[in-house]
Each structure stands twice: as structure tokens, then as C-alpha cells.
Amino acid sequence: MSKTVWRITPVNGYDIPGLEGWLEKQAARGLIFSMTVGFFTLFHRGEPAALRFHLEPAPDKPDRTDPELNSLYEQAGWRYLGLFRSSFAVFVTENPEAQAHTDPQVWDYALRRFFRRKLLGGLGLAALNFFFSSFCGGLANLSWSDLRWFPVETFTTRPLLASILSALGLILVDLSWLLGLLALCRYRRAVISREMSPKRTRGGGLLAVGVLILALVLVDLLWQIAGIGYWPILEEAGAVTLTDIEGADFPLSSDPFASMDYASHRNSLLMPERWVYWQSGQFRWENGAPDREVPKLDVAIYRYPLPWLAGRMAEEQSRIRWNGSEYAPLSPAHGLDEILISHDLFDPERDTYPTTRLILRRGNTVLLAEYTGNQALTRFLPRFGDMLANL
To answer: What letter does residue 283 receive in the DSSP assignment?
Structure first.
């Protein structure tokens, strides 16, 4: 059995009497304080003992230790165990009559100094809020109708989960800090008036959960940065291109924003993996202006953690009526589990080319293709199926 025991600190990190009481309960179970790592407290196993703990605000020194203060406490019957985070020096004694502070004014001065230091720590918390608030952009202009009717698409196309987690994490961390300051204020009033110590303030769990949530958002950001160099070339990836559909002699637009020779890739822990590319024919010039009514192809592919989510995405997209046209199902083939196709109603007076849309699902992957042109897009279903199989 390991001699080291890890515990998440359930008490707010600024609640002095609450922390002292919690450490004493752990000692009664045979767990003696050793050190802290973040919101974890480490104990070493020993014999159960009735010990008294005292937390002294750590001095404003680089190592947060004061040998002279430790010596004074030793002379009074206390033993120095180490630092609780960087906030408190931890002292312990077996003598139930040992006194840590006899002068309330001196103790109040130490508490006021500690309170000011933690209040200034709010500047660092403000910086943390500013940084992670940039992840909350997915909540802007969020429509309830989108969440109601197209929940999977909303979480697919917007960083909604990262936004929700960032907001929740910041709320929990901020609330833990505010509860800690409130606990310090109550304790100071009790010291001055010589009243009984206030009740324990729970809040350590808030900090632990909040930090873990924000860490997940940060890991997701680093995950995306690590994969930002992956830009699959369409031909090498076996992608269906506009040149394949229209023919080898078909001229693509030279504008890099209109015709891509690679697929834009996104790999995120909190969003489905995505590949996107679009291509357009070369614009014709008429009367000194470009005629943008040319064949086009837009493809978006999403890979979900579960096939059920991919099925929901396909179902949500199939409910969209483009220019009055509905999606019709085709028999599954070419390794595809679902094939849905929609043809826009073509108006020769308004449109130069008809538009065809495909929804293809293979397992947990969904492909959405929109093609504007005169060719039959269904001829390339085998190629689309191979493309999804090789991703």
C-alpha cells in the first residue's frame, strides 16, 4: 500500500478555520499533511492521532518561509510541516493547550495583510478571465431555434461546447475566489470580536472543477494548434474535384479564394473533425464585369465520435428545403450507409445551372456536397464512398 495519499481539498483555499478542521479530521484517520500540488493535498500514512493544526499566512518572501517565525512556534510547542500552496505555513501540535496567537491585534494585522495580497491576486484572475472569455464567442448571437431544430449542426459549425465550458469554468473559479475572500472577512471579524470561528466554507471543489474545465479548453486549443499543418492535397487524398466532374479541360478559377487545391482541416477535441474544400470554374467577363454563374463544387466532411451523431446530422440536413426541393433517399451502396439527394427546381430565366446536393453517411462520417452544373453528380458516388473510407 502506498504511503502517500492524494485528496482534492474540499474546503476553500482561503478558509483558515475550515482548512485547519479538515486537516485535523484527516489526522484522526491516520493521514498527516505533507504538501499541496495545485488543488490536491498530499498526506502520508501514519497512526491516527488527535492533532491540532494552525495555518499562518505565509510571509511575502520568495520561498514563503520565515525561519524566525518557525523557531518561535517550535518554542511554543508547534512543529512546522510545510506550505499549504503558497498561502499558509502549516504548524501542528499534540498539545491541546498550545497557543498559536494570544494577541488578536497582531493576528488581525497578519490577516489584513494576507487579505490584501489575495485581493491583488484578483488581477491575475482578471487576466485569466480575459484570456478564456475569447473562447466564449460561440455563445454570441446564439439562436434558440437553432438549438431546438438543428442541435448537432449548431455544435458542429460553432465552437459552442468550448464556449460553454469556458464560461462555466470561469464562473466556478471566480466564485471560489469570491467565497474565499468572504471567508477571510468573516474570520477577521470573529478574531477581532473574539467570537467563535465561522462555519467552514466549502469551495475547494469549485476551484478543482473550474480549473479542470479550463484545462480541457486549453488542451483543445493546443490540440488544434498541433494539427494546424495538416492540409491534405485533394488529388493525393482521392477527393472528388470539380475537374473530375466537368472534365480535364475544364478551367478552374485562378483565384485561390474561389478554388482550393487542398482541404481545410480542423481537428478538435470539443468539435467534430472537419474537412472543407470548394472549387469554382473560371469566371467569364461580360461588359467589364465577371459573370459568376459558373459551375461550382462545395464539400464539407464531418467525423463524429459516435455514428448516432452522424445519423442525427444527416437527418437534420435532410429537413432543409433548398428552393422548395426535398431530399430523396437512394439505396445504400458503395459502402455508404445513407445516400440522400436533392435537386433544386431549375428556372432557366433565373439560373444558368441547376444545383444538386448530396448527403452521404458512412459510419460516423457525414459528407455534404453541393454542386452547381450540368453533370450528374450521382456518377461519383463510388468515388465519394472511397473518399470517406480513406479519410
So the answer is: P
